[in-house]
UniProtKB/TrEMBL annotation:
Pfam family of the protein (one): Ribosomal_L27
Main location group: mitochondrion
Entry keywords, A to Z: Mitochondrion, Ribonucleoprotein, Ribosomal protein
Listed GO CC annotations: mitochondrial large ribosomal subunit
Family per similarity comment: Belongs to the bacterial ribosomal protein bL27 family.
Record-linked InterPro entries: Ribosomal_bL27, Ribosomal_bL27_CS
Localization of this protein: Mitochondrion
GO molecular function, one term: structural constituent of ribosome
Name of protein: Large ribosomal subunit protein bL27m
Key word Ribosomal protein present: yes
Species whose genome carries this gene: Conidiobolus coronatus (strain ATCC 28846 / CBS 209.66 / NRRL 28638) (Delacroixia coronata)
One BP annotation, GO: translation
Length: 156
């Protein structure tokens, strides 16, 4: 009898326990992604040639962007503090090499010339190239007189 009463009380308590056990448990359907310490990268610095051999440049145009001196400044070319090469005068870009026989090395240079047919490097004994952009005043005055004469003739 005692066992009967214990059995009924256990069955009643077990039924209430089983109802708790059979309750719905909802789990995630997608596993969460793990964190990563990778995936960062800086953008490229856009280094390299901006003007090529034979191209026309204006004063101040950037010819070559670089880190360190891969290419050295030659005729009419300046170098910025970040080693950027730029044109000092308007003209045509020329790339050339000069070899150093003592060290058996070769340096690359870039220069700007006034004439597209000029070859670099220039002979050190040659006179310096200059571009004056001057106007022949006598020729200019003659043209003005001719235009004025033709204008007066058309008025008469």
């Amino acid at each position: 009898m005692i066992f009967n009463s214990i059995n009924t009380s256990l069955s009643k308590s077990c039924s209430s326990l089983t109802s708790l056990v059979y309750q719905q448990v909802r789990n995630a359907t997608k596993k969460t992604g793990g964190s990563s310490r990778n995936g960062r990268d800086s953008a490229g610095r856009r280094l390299g040639a901006k003007k090529f051999d034979g191209q026309l440049v204006k004063t101040g145009n950037i010819i070559f962007r670089q880190r360190g001196t891969r290419i050295f400044p030659g005729e009419n070319v300046g170098m910025g503090r970040d080693h950027t090469l730029f044109a000092l005068v308007p003209g045509y870009v020329k790339y050339y090499r000069i070899s150093n026989d003592e060290k058996n090395t070769e340096r690359r240079f870039v220069g700007v010339t006034h004439d597209p047919n000029t070859a670099l490097p220039l002979d050190p004994n040659q006179p310096r190239q200059r571009k004056f952009d001057l106007v022949d005043v006598n020729d200019f005055n003659k043209k003005l007189e001719e235009e004025y004469a033709s204008y007066r003739n058309s008025q008469q």
